[in-house]
Design a protein that fits this description.
Elements: H1 16-25, E1 38-43, E2 49-55, E3 63-67, H2 77-88, E4 92-96, H3 117-130, E5 136-141, H4 143-155, E6 166-169, H5 175-182, H6 185-209, H7 216-221, H8 225-236, H9 242-249, E7 262-265, E8 288-291, H10 318-329
Parallel strand pairs: 3-4, 3-5, 5-6, 6-7, 7-8
Antiparallel strand pairs: 1-2, 2-4
């Protein structure tokens, strides 16, 4: 069913690290197409806000709601690629930003996390209100993919009223396994330090607005994602600690509860998500379709667009995922 030689990255991207880094830093996002985002602010029931960037061309026949990854946004390479491919093929796209990720600190005494399924459900319901005439599908990348799966699991059959199909890409389905992987060796130097840089700044902003909400000094002293999640993410969102958070937020144990056609795409050389932690067909419902190619890294599914193209184009990812969503949802895709 799935292409066995996909993706075919630029020749120098010979392992998962280079496929991850190359796509994020140098990969094109849909060739030369530049998508112009429009921004709308949704006010939340708890007195906060969600900024959603969207591009819905005239005559659009469907809407894909894309949930970004850890510290991501509509400016992330994969968001630009999804937007380019979707709008070129007659679909609209909306990227709701998790709280604090749109360029402005959020107002409430909370942030976002990998199991934020209630937030995902609210965002999807709000998208349905804004674009009621467009059939909807959802896609989530990395953290956003895990959170989307957790919503699908909690919603069960009722999710069909909101989305027709879904896809989770490079989702850390077993957060304990992914957390251990990212905090070790080269991963800690290459990736964990990068994420912690912005996360510590956000912790300082939150502490200035809400003193005493969590142990700021522990959060600032964190040198691993595990330490940061234990000091900041877990207490901020009602978990007893990092182990409680990672256990309750992980999507892998509940994949049998998904009742909407859902693609779960994970490269087996993903530096963040160990191949041994990926689910087997016996661990998922009949509505979950697993695709675990040998290559791709972490959201690094780029392919050259011409001979000699050393950068690659991340549009190779939505060029596979969007047609699958269209078929599963029975929606035309130009």
């Amino acid at each position: 069913m799935w292409p066995t030689d996909w993706p075919r990255p630029p020749v120098w991207q010979h392992n998962g690290h280079w496929q991850t880094i190359g796509a994020a830093l140098w990969g094109r996002a849909g060739g030369s197409t530049a998508v112009r985002w429009r921004r709308t602010r949704w006010l939340t029931p708890d007195g906060d806000f969600i900024d959603v960037d969207h591009a819905v061309p005239p005559g659009a026949v469907a809407l894909v709601v894309l949930f970004h990854g850890l510290e991501g946004s509509s400016a992330s390479h994969y968001a630009g690629a999804f937007a380019a491919v979707a709008t070129q093929r007659g679909w609209g796209i909306a990227v709701p930003h998790f709280r604090g990720c749109s360029g402005e600190p959020n107002w409430a005494p909370r942030a976002y996390h990998s199991g934020d399924y209630e937030e995902v459900g609210w965002m999807l319901a709000r998208a349905a209100q804004q674009w009621p005439m467009l059939p909807r599908v959802a896609a989530g990348v990395s953290l956003g993919g895990n959170a989307l799966l957790r919503w699908l699991q909690e919603a069960g059959e009722s999710a069909k009223a909101t989305v027709r199909a879904a896809a989770a890409i490079s989702a850390p389905l077993d957060l304990a396994a992914a957390g251990a992987a990212i905090d070790q060796g080269w991963n800690r130097l290459l990736y964990a330090r990068h994420f912690l840089r912005t996360m510590r700044r956000k912790a300082q902003e939150k502490a200035a607005r809400y003193p005493g909400l969590f142990d700021l000094q522990r959060a600032l002293a964190a040198r691993t994602l595990r330490e940061f999640d234990d000091a900041f993410t877990a207490p901020l969102h009602g978990f007893r600690g990092v182990d409680d958070y990672w256990r309750r937020a992980s999507a892998k144990p509940h994949l049998h509860a998904v009742r909407v056609p859902t693609l779960v795409l994970n490269a087996r050389n993903d530096p963040f998500v160990p191949a041994a932690s990926l689910p087997t067909p016996q661990q998922v419902s009949a509505d979950v379709h697993l695709w675990q190619p040998a290559r791709g890294g972490h959201v690094g599914f780029a392919e050259p667009i011409a001979p000699g193209d050393w950068r690659g184009d991340v549009a190779a990812l939505p060029a596979q995922v969007l047609p699958w969503l269209a078929r599963a949802a029975q929606i035309p895709l130009a």
